[in-house]
Design a protein that fits this description.
182 residues; mRNA splicing; alpha+beta; four-stranded antiparallel beta sheet
């Protein structure tokens, strides 16, 4: 490098600076912050801003672009809100018609569901004897003996409702009769 400095001497406002990162000298103009890898008077010398300055300028540009983009987005949102308001006012009649149509559709669906429930109730269960013979359709208790209810008729009151099993006294009496017969 010393040979280059002898051949191409540095102007007064330039200085030689060692870059520890790459282990080389570069040349820096202290007045306007331009840098060069070769002495400034060398014919192949390219003078440009330092990496730190370029980085700083790029950061400023990026921040400015982001700010402009945010302003554009804000303007678009404001415009879309205005458009939506005008759209709403222009199309309120259509919206009302659509809402009425939806209500009618819901009412019809409800009625259809109600009709289908009735038709299901009217259908005969395939396991019901009335479905495959001349027996009239009945309830689950039709055909059971009616003289015994199989419920305790002695229990009464709110807490003692009739139980679906015989009274203990009836069971004892029935057991006593069975033992007498044997």
């Amino acid at each position: 490098m010393q040979k280059l400095l002898v051949k191409y001497p540095m102007p007064n406002n330039w200085t030689e600076v060692f870059d520890k990162g790459i282990g080389r000298y570069y040349y820096w103009n202290m007045e306007n912050d331009l840098v060069s890898w070769l002495p400034p008077k060398h014919p192949k010398s390219i003078k440009c801003q330092s990496a730190a300055k370029l980085r700083e300028n790029r950061l400023k540009m990026k921040e400015r672009e982001e700010r402009i983009e945010r302003e554009k987005d804000h303007d678009k949102e404001r415009d879309s809100d205005d458009d939506e308001r005008s759209y709403r006012s222009k199309h309120s009649d259509r919206r009302d018609r659509d809402r009425d149509r939806e209500r009618e559709d819901r009412r019809h669906r409800r009625e259809d569901r109600h009709r289908s429930k009735k038709s299901k109730k009217d259908e005969i269960d395939p396991m019901d004897p009335a479905a495959y013979s001349d027996v009239p359709q009945g309830t689950w208790s039709d055909g059971l003996e009616s003289n015994k209810t199989r419920a305790d008729s002695t229990a009464s009151g709110v807490l003692y409702q009739q139980r679906p099993y015989p009274a203990p006294g009836e069971v004892l009496a029935a057991n006593k009769e069975k033992t007498k017969k044997k």
